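Thread title: Can someone regenerate the structure for this chain?

I was given the following input by a collaborator and told the matching structure tokens would be attached. They weren't. Posting the sequence so someone can regenerate them.
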Amino acid sequence: MAFLLRSCRLANCRGLLARRSPVHGLRTVQISDGLQAARTLTSTITLETLEQRPELDSFRKFIEEYKDICGPKEVYICDGSESELASLTKHMIDTGVIRELKSKSYENCFLARSDPGDVARVEGKTFVCTPEEEDIIAEGGRRLTPGQREGPNWMSERKMDLKMKSRLENCMKDRRMYVIPFSMGKVGSPLAKAGVQVTDSPYVVASMRIMAHGMGQDTIDSLLEKKDDFVRCVHSVGRPMDAAVYNSLLPSWPCDPQRVLVAHYPQRRKIVSYGSGYGGNSLLGKKCFALRLASAMGHNDEKNPWYAEHMLIMRLEKGDKHKYIAAAFPSACGKTNLAMMQPALDGWKVKCVGDDIAWMRFDEDGSLRAINPENGFFGVAPGTSERTNPVAMQMIKKNTIFTNVAYTEEGEPFWENMGEDPDFSKVKVITWRGVPHWKPKMANIDGVPITASHPNSRFCTPIGHCSILDEEGVNDPRGVKIDAIVFGGRRGDTVPLVFQSRSWQHGVLMGAAMRSEGTAAAADIKSKIRSDPFAMLPFFGYNVGNYFQHWLNMDKPNHNLPKIFQVNWFQRDPQTKAFLWPGFGDNIRVLDWIFTRCDDDVSESDIAQKTPIGFVPKAGAINTSGLTDVPMDKLLAVDKELWLEELEAVKKYLQKQNGNDLPNAIRQELAVLEERLHESK
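Best answer:
Regenerated them for you:
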């Protein structure tokens, strides 16, 4: 049975078997976890054969260290072969980890349903661990209680080691330990970084195969040999100590929700995650490595500093011209929809490089270049539909793992508002919790609404399925040249549809001052407006004040800096609460203005007027042809009183959380902005 990536070429695995070193040998492991699988799990890499390759000693010793600690019944080192994937898939189906969605419309697609207590990132249990608190927590935050502090949580390495020791000892007893060599960034790119993850979750293995590059032999051959420079990733779904908790769990989704811990060790280049199988906590190449750890790695690289950012990368084409945009939005705020936008204006094309994470570095010519370190999409299902993102709806129809969506009796995934509702008298929908015959407005006996899918349900699909993939950009090992950086979030008022910074320093303040409504992507926040600097609040891997300074340091004479903008698609009518801007494909109208402004000097022009907060489009500068009843005057208005309130909230937040670590340049920009607002009419 083929599964996901039926063609391994999408994961850089072409010709793996032909490239095996003769010293690797061959090992066959019979699958025996839970129900007996019909196939055997075969790897060309074993601990025994690794002993014959001294250049891989650090790789082998890492595996042996956690084999001794976690106590698995056996170790399987992933080689990335198709036979491996077929056997793993059969095993997961037989043990109930995944369900095959047998539908004519969906090819090789599967559904995983997590335990209800394990459905999102758990920010309150996620830590960055260093010898000193000041490495992670800015001076202002160090004077606050943990409940008052926002941003990364800190714990000393020694204290976290003790906590993890009690959790990891024999946590994989009676389970298999899978070893996943992988690369974030295309193998061969100078920006790529290698990682090795050990895990006891086959769901993680299958998902990492989609999300990372070069899983298995490719990474070992290209990045690990003769090097100790790889990120060590340790993951276990855990084993509850309380029998009552253990017995209450979904049998097919082991976890330890009461003792979840996720630890990042920047100085050790190591990540340890215990107790959760949810992707944000278990696919350690994603947010854990590619953002938290990588942000610290980029900052600490004195020779070639770089930037790991929570940003999409997209290519805009108009005629024979093109530009690349990197855009930062909090999770579940439309990054994927924007990265795969279908333009509503003729003459435009959008191509996607990535929808979530960007690694950026200046090249020898002073241009800021970016790569997407991932090889797949881990998107939020609710909100994805033929209307909002037709590209995504097509690409998820094959080789996709869905998590916590509903499904129909006919074997198709389902979530609210994914399209025109079926006739629920004829189509049986089973919820993500297994409730049959779901219908809209269904509630339990206490009147609590029952949702078909979880608000943070996901799809995990290979990047090669994207019909508008920018293959040139994705395959360029140098990365693409960034022309514009865009910040955004969900704001019902105050923030205009679009505006441009007055300078680079002002643009850094715009990123630092980002505030957005909360989303379902994190389990322990409510839907309220919260500060989210650079959309990185959950992902900072080092002192936030130093992070701001790292961005300010980009402004050097030999650097060709991108222009900086902020957008807000989410303004609402104060009475009806309806959105004022149509969004989705019509967002090209805003990007059209940004595209043109990238070629202009940072000054007023025929299409831009100077305001206290930056440059705003002049009346008529946004192409609204074909739109009706869109109040452009309201969408582009700069309300002095609202902005003074906004500024006060931003000032208090930045001072409270950063204190003396807030760069002076940010303080100066805040003071100048306040002066401009007071002087305005």
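The chain is about 25% helix and 20% strand.
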